[in-house]
Design goal:
The chain is mainly alpha-helical. It has two domains: about 210 residues, Rossmann fold, CATH 3.40.50.620; about 90 residues, Tyrosyl-Transfer RNA Synthetase (Orthogonal Bundle), CATH 1.10.240. It is about 55% helix and about 5% strand. The chain is built from 13 helices and five strands. Strands 1-2-3 form a three-stranded parallel beta sheet. Strands 4-5 form a two-stranded parallel ribbon. Strand 4, helix 8 and strand 5 form a beta-alpha-beta unit. Helix 3 crosses helix 12 and helix 4 runs parallel beside helix 13. The chain is globular, with a radius of gyration of 21 Å. The two termini are about 25 Å apart. About 40% of the residues are buried. The structure holds tryptophanyl-5'AMP.
């Protein structure tokens, strides 16, 4: 491999991808393709930590692949593959469960606490153990940088700890990865509750804009989005969290800076701003979906198969080393 740094990231097919996933994660990836060895995975084994309908899961795996491509991920520059097609991920996950991870690590994971709520003993072991599989995804490829949204920071930090502990015990097998989080847009919030993250698994569809929502539906969701008291268009996340979120969405999709949006809307109200944002979102989705619809299932499958071969080569070489140092075959 070249001396370029390696980045790895992924999205789990557990629901319809939102503009949060796009802004927080995918846009970073697209920019990084020129300067890094990039590996992007559809991390399907992460989706089954909660119940999934097999036919929905199959559909979403292809849809996410198409979303990567429609966003500008170029399979000639980047490896695009499906996690379950490379068994080394789950194999390394087991090894890391045993060598490098403590139950106390997993008990303090914010996402686990949020997802399990007061049912911590009644959810699947997979939901609890999920960050270890994520650590395996990352360190399997000598990844240096992991571009993710803010909610994944703690998981990447755990991957660092696990890799360090493994290396301490067995020698320098793994590269220690680092999270890369955008300054703006790393945490897009729900349109119906600015204290909650915009999530693909949200039961309330008004809270998120899916990348495959029709532009008309998306427009309505923006117009219905909650706003704060007052009327001035200023970026003030503390006192105007809902508006700050809408400004961030606008800026991320239109490329206009928040400063210039504040200037443009000086003296105008929320209604005007939302109308323009609705238009920005509709234009973005129309263009995005045009690209998405041009990609066939067959194209997506071909790209995944090609990616599987490339990823397998790297992953198998690393697993050979791991098996050797721990003393199995
Ligand atoms: P997932 O599938 O929940 O989300 C995929 C990516 O989108 C980011 N994201 C957001 N960014 C900004 N605002 C939001 N509202 C928002 N919601 C989601 C996430 O931070 C993430 O970058 N565990 C991971 C998937 C994973 C992974 C990995 C990531 C598995 N293995 C290895 C990186 C490296 C997850 O559940 O992301």
């Amino acid at each position: 491999m070249s001396h370029k740094k390696t980045i790895f990231s992924g999205i789990k097919p557990s629901g319809d991808l939102t503009i949060g996933n796009y802004i927080g994660a995918i846009t970073q990836w697209v920019e990084m393709q020129e300067e890094y060895n990039c590996i992007f995975s559809v991390v399907d084994y992460h989706a089954i930590t909660v119940k999934q309908k097999p036919e929905d899961l199959r559909r979403r795996i292809l849809d996410i692949t198409k979303i990567y491509l429609a966003s500008g991920i170029d399979p000639k520059k980047s490896i695009v593959f499906q996690q379950s097609a490379v068994p080394a991920h789950t194999e390394l996950g087991w090894v890391l469960n045993c060598c490098g991870t403590y139950i106390s690590d997993l008990k303090r994971m914010i996402q686990f606490k949020e997802k399990a709520g007061d049912k911590q003993d009644a959810v699947s072991v997979g939901l609890f153990d999920y960050p270890v599989l994520m650590a395996a995804d990352i360190i399997l490829y000598d990844t240096q940088i992991v571009p993710v949204g803010e909610d994944q920071k703690q998981h990447v930090e755990l991957a660092r700890d696990i890799a360090k502990r493994f290396n301490n015990q067995y020698g320098p097998v793994f590269v220690i990865p680092e999270a890369l989080i955008k300054k703006e847009g790393a945490r897009i919030m729900s349109l119906s509750d600015p204290m909650k993250k915009m999530a693909k698994s949200d039961d309330n569809p008004v809270g998120f804009i899916a990348l495959l929502d029709s532009p008309e539906v998306a427009r309505k969701k923006i117009m219905k989005a909650v706003t704060d008291s007052g009327s001035e268009i200023i970026y003030d996340p503390k006192n105007k969290p809902a508006l700050a979120n809408l400004l961030t969405i606008h800026s991320s999709l239109s490329g206009e800076s928040i400063k210039s949006l504040e200037k443009k809307f000086a003296g105008r109200g929320y209604g005007d701003f939302k109308k323009e944002l609705a238009e920005v979102v509709a234009v973005f989705l129309t263009d995005f979906q045009k690209k998405f619809n041009k990609i066939s299932d067959a194209d997506a499958k071909k790209i995944l198969e090609n990616g599987r071969k490339q990823a397998t080569k790297l992953a198998d070489a690393k697993m050979e080393k791991v098996r050797k140092v721990i003393g199995v075959r």
